[in-house]
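Possible regression after last week's pipeline update?

I re-ran a chain I had predicted before the update to compare outputs. Posting the input and the new output here so someone can diff against the archived version. Not blocking, just want to make sure nothing changed silently.
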Amino acid sequence: MNVKSPIIFILDAGGTGFKFSAVQDSREIIESFTIPSAAPTLEEVLQKLITGFHECETRCGAKASAISFCFPGPADYPNGIIGDLENLPSFKGGVPLKAMLENEFQIPVYINNDGDLFAYGEALNGLLPEVNNLLGQQRNPKRYKNLLGVTLGTGFGGGIVINKVLLNGDNSAGGEINRHRNPLYPQTSAEDSISIRAVRRVYGREAGIAFNDTPHPFDIYKIAMGQLPGAKEAALKAWDELATALADVLANAISLIDGIIVIGGGLSGAWPVFMPMLIKKMNEPFTGLNGSPLSRMETQAYNLMDANDMIRFTEKTGKMVKVPFSDQLVWYDPTKRVGVGITKLGTTSAVAIGAYAYALEQLKNI
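New output (post-update):
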């Protein structure tokens, strides 16, 4: 008998809209739809969530096995309690969202943040398996198991997957990469230089334009690439500052995680202008107190969006070495590489696939 896979209702929640969908077999089975999230009271916001998931039922013509979605933090994600939110100010003092939805729909509910679910989707179905497939094609025995996912957009988010296991952390704070110190403005967090507002702020500062009059980041990207008129040097400076701050944060983080890095979010589409700078800065050495250079990382970063770098990253290197006191030979490759690429699934799809996979994994434990 052919047993159908579970249907999972998905939500990508943001400060301006709640985007609903339904996923089965890792693909959307209804056309996603969005309900504006703004409302005068908490009760009205919560009713929008309930209405949206009931609409998913109507459009599917079936009940779901679970609800799985991303929601902004701070939050106690395992228990589904949402804290005080900047973009949804009606959430105050702790709102038990998981329990509320489980009472309403009588199915399990799983909540996480978008950075975590983005990383999980890319680790299972996106950049990580693609890299390993390319390694196989090159007859390279190396395989990657760990992934750091970061999202660049309104904010700066992140998630960590270790050998197909999503790292939540003991306090629901695993992968909170936005809280790294900003290397350019040490009194601030990294997010102040790695976000939409940062790109606009630097462009406006360099071009002598008020912030509210600055173009949107994609236009600033086009100006930097010479595709639109504007202050090109100011645009290049805006992306240079983002690349400088991001390089420092990623180099620190990947030194602890040691794996593949995937970048998503609204700013990721500007990778042609910031990625070469990012990789260069990640690989720039420290200078010791004695004046000698010291590698910034124990690994070397490669730009997986560059065809030549991808070949160098995946090609088989190394040699056979002899086991002492025997005729046995073993393969040894002293080269240590980390690859940095852009989302293969698209950020929204990666989040949806991550949410679906996370729910399936949790349902196994029921």
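Follow-up from reviewer: compared with the archived run. The first strand starts at residue 8 and ends at 13. Marking as no regression found.
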